[in-house]
């Protein structure tokens, strides 16, 4: 799909009709080829769009409306089913195109491996890039059962690309012992269990730097987000996650892109998770793009 083509499916509420006057390109990465537990996140982007019709365009948190940050919903990237490497290559090319046009990429997953090619594209444009990562899981494995392309590996991959000292993970409550040990030895920041307070302590250190924000919906407790592939008890509340997004928005960091991944509608029978995701995306749109 080219950016000058209209997306023929459902669009996120408030989307502009064309990309030319948009500051933000919202796009889907419908891939779940490498998940190790429950698949289904490839259907996340479209369901988030569908439920967004019930969302207000005004944010009382930020006192802004969606028309103040013009964005274009470009639809889902057409990815070849089952071909992980080609899918990742297509995502990277797609984000390259967004960045070449001087626009802000806001992605919807899909499994978390889809963030890896986005990180690569962002790093090419911003060599002093930092990553803010909110997740239940470390995602620091080098491979999963012999496969290096896995949704358990994207943060280890980006740490190798930009340096572990430039990766900041929050809300982590699950991972192999070796992953935690590697992060400590490598000088990577990991905040276990909590997000908001440790995030507030880190943000001043990132003042003025280009930052990419990646949020796995399973950072939320399953009570708040049951519709995901790898639920993990003991997570944060949706209120804390919203407050964390607002903390980033109100800081002096320069957010240059973001994504929200791992919404799996098949396990989300009341649309609770998809509705939460649509609200989070609204706040990211209104908060991260000045």
Topology summary:
Elements: E1 24-29, H1 44-51, E2 58-59, E3 64-65, E4 71-76, H2 84-100, E5 104-109, H3 115-125, E6 130-134, H4 154-162, E7 167-172, H5 177-186, E8 189-192, H6 196-202, E9 210-216, H7 238-249, E10 254-261, H8 272-288
Parallel strand pairs: 1-4, 1-5, 5-10, 6-7, 6-9, 7-8, 9-10
Antiparallel strand pairs: 2-3
Helix pairs in contact: 1-8, 2-3, 3-4, 7-8
What does this structure look like?
With 290 residues, the protein is α/β, with parallel strands linked by helices. The chain has one domain: Ureohydrolase domain (Arginase, Chain A, 3-Layer(aba) Sandwich). The protein contains eight helices and ten strands. It has helices spanning 44-51, 84-100, 115-125, 154-162, 177-186, 196-202, 238-249, 272-288; strands spanning 24-29, 58-59, 64-65, 71-76, 104-109, 130-134, 167-172, 189-192, 210-216, 254-261. The protein has an eight-stranded parallel β-sheet, sandwiched between helices. Helix 7 links the parallel strand 9 (210-216) and strand 10 (254-261). Helix 1 packs across helix 8, helix 2 (84-100) packs parallel to helix 3 and helix 7 (238-249) packs parallel to helix 8 (272-288). The longest helix is centred in the N-terminal third of the chain and has 17 residues, at 84-100. Pathway: Amine and polyamine biosynthesis; putrescine biosynthesis via agmatine pathway; putrescine from agmatine: step 1/1. InterPro entries: Agmatinase-rel, Ureohydrolase, Ureohydrolase_dom_sf, Ureohydrolase_Mn_BS. Its cofactor is Mn(2+).
């Amino acid at each position: 799909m080219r950016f000058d083509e209209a997306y023929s499916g459902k669009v996120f509420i408030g989307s502009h009709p064309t990309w030319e006057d948009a500051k933000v390109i919202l796009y889907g990465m419908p891939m779940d080829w490498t998940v190790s537990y429950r698949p289904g996140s490839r259907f996340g982007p479209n369901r988030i769009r569908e439920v967004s019709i019930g969302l207000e365009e005004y944010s009382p948190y930020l006192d802004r409306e969606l028309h103040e940050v013009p964005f274009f919903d470009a639809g889902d990237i057409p990815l070849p089913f089952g071909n992980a490497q080609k899918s990742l290559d297509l995502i990277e090319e797609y984000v390259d195109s967004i960045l070449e046009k001087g626009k802000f990429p806001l992605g919807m997953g899909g499994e978390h491996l889809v963030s890896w090619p986005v990180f690569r594209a962002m790093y090419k444009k911003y060599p002093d890039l930092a990553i803010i990562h909110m997740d239940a899981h470390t995602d620091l494995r080098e491979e999963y059962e012999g496969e290096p392309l896995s949704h358990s590996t994207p943060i280890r991959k980006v740490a190798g690309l930009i340096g572990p000292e430039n990766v900041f993970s929050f809300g982590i409550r699950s991972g192999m012992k070796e992953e935690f040990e590697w992060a400590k030895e490598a000088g990577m920041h990991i905040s276990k269990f909590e997000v908001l307070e440790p995030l507030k302590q880190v943000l001043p250190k990132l003042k003025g730097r280009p930052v990419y924000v990646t949020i796995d919906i399973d950072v939320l407790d399953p009570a708040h987000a049951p519709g995901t592939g790898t639920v993990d008890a003991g997570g944060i509340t949706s209120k804390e996650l919203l407050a964390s997004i607002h903390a980033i928005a109100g800081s002096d960091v320069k957010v240059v892109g973001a994504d929200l991944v791992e919404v799996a509608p098949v396990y989300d029978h009341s649309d609770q998770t998809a509705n939460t995701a649509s609200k989070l995306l609204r706040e990211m749109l209104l908060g991260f793009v000045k």
